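Running co-folding for NAP.
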Amino acid sequence: MNRKKCFVITGASSGLGKALKDFLISETHHFVVSLSRRAEPEDISTERIWFSYCDLASLDNTDVIKDICDKYQDEDIIYINNAATILPLHGVGCFKDDELAAYFKTNVEAPVRLINELVALKKKGLTVLNISSGAAKRAISHWSLYCSAKAAVNMFCDVLAIDRPEVIVRNIDPGVINTRMQSQIRESNIPDLQIFADLSGNDQLKEPIDAAREILIDFV
Ligand SMILES: NC(=O)c1ccc[n+]([C@@H]2O[C@H](COP(=O)([O-])OP(=O)(O)OC[C@H]3O[C@@H](n4cnc5c(N)ncnc54)[C@H](OP(=O)(O)O)[C@@H]3O)[C@@H](O)[C@H]2O)c1
């Protein structure tokens, strides 16, 4: 059995993040830190999980990263930047000013601040897995916020990899997964709606637990 590691997951209370947490708890012996807005019953009942409340939309400091580094100073840390939002989905020109600020706070500013602090404090044994998307590299009509936020964090991580070669960094496109994010896309009025309706209708969405296993298999 290899040494215990600490997996830190943002947004571990639903969707892919919850599946990552479930896989780690049921299939491995590692620790999990859930940086999420909501605690799940297992977060309280399972000794290997540490829940820390984190709302990226209102993140005002990065103290939680110091707490994690203090608590898990003997373990390697694998930080998974998973939490993200896709709404609002509108054509450019239709966003309200405050929507734009809120979107980039949650999807770029807060994740980048947390990763920056972690890199500052964890001098060795750090891996950063950024859950990215094909949308980081491909323009999709009405997805300007999601595409540009994913591209920004991708590039931040690419530069991190050359700034700090001792940190293992991966941008991971998890594929199309059966989560709330896909429901939100199907409930929107984007021009490519039929493509996403067909993926779901034809059973072509990955189950979150299968996507989680694929992502984690090389790191456990
Ligand atoms: N689903 C797909 O087809 C697909 C494809 C490519 C990439 N991805 C990426 O996979 C990752 C997970 O997405 P998903 O499909 O699991 O979507 P999801 O079901 O909508 O889950 C999104 C996660 O982000 C969290 N979150 C949202 N706003 C937050 C905030 N302000 N503070 C903290 N956490 C917040 C949510 O927490 P709550 O439970 O509290 O809302 C939830 O855990 C995302 O990075 C997404 O871009 C998904």
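Result summary
Strands lie at 6-10, 31-36, 49-53, 77-81, 126-131, 168-172.
The longest strand covers residues 31-36.
Job closed.
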